[in-house]
């Protein structure tokens, strides 16, 4: 099997799709954290802030993986 398409044991991740979803999650969670803090709902504000921090970490990991693929000369589409 071709290494660029992945295998059953080592599948490839759809990094561009993950990037889009992590960005969406960051924006939504940040907005909800700010709105719930403004409304005085502390538990929801803290939980949304934690989820926003997780999205930031995911964005960093995705960026590292995309950079590795580009260094190897691999190109990929949104859903590949």
Draw up the topology in text:
Blueprint: H1 15-39, H2 42-71
Transmembrane segments: 20-39, 45-67
Protein name: DUF6343 family protein
Keywords: Membrane, Transmembrane, Transmembrane helix
Which spans of ≥5 residues are poorly predicted at pLDDT below 50? none
Approximate shape: elongated
Helix count equals 2
Please trace the helix and strand order, writing H or E for each element: HH
How many domain units?
A: 1
Q: Kindly name the structural category.
A: mainly alpha
Report the biggest beta sheet as strand number plus sense, adding barrel if it closes: none
Protein name: DUF6343 family protein
Transmembrane segments: 20-39, 45-67
Keywords: Membrane, Transmembrane, Transmembrane helix
Describe this structure in words.
The protein is 69% helix and 0% strand. It has 80 residues and is mainly alpha-helical. It has one domain (12-71). Helix 1 (15-39) runs antiparallel to helix 2 (42-71). Pfam families: DUF6343. Keywords: Membrane, Transmembrane, Transmembrane helix. The chain crosses the membrane at residues 20-39, 45-67. This is DUF6343 family protein.
Give descriptors for this structure.
single chain, 80 residues, mainly alpha, 2 helices, 69% helix
Short description:
The chain is mainly α and 80 residues long. The chain contains two helices and no strands. It has one domain.
């Amino acid at each position: 099997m071709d290494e660029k398409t992945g295998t059953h044991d080592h599948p490839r991740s759809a990094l561009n799709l993950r990037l889009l979803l992590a960005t969406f999650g960051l924006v939504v969670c940040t907005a909800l954290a700010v709105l719930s803090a403004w409304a005085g709902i502390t538990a929801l504000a803290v939980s949304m802030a934690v989820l926003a921090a997780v999205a930031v970490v995911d964005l960093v990991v995705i960026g590292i993986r995309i950079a590795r693929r580009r260094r190897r000369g691999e190109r990929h589409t949104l859903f590949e």
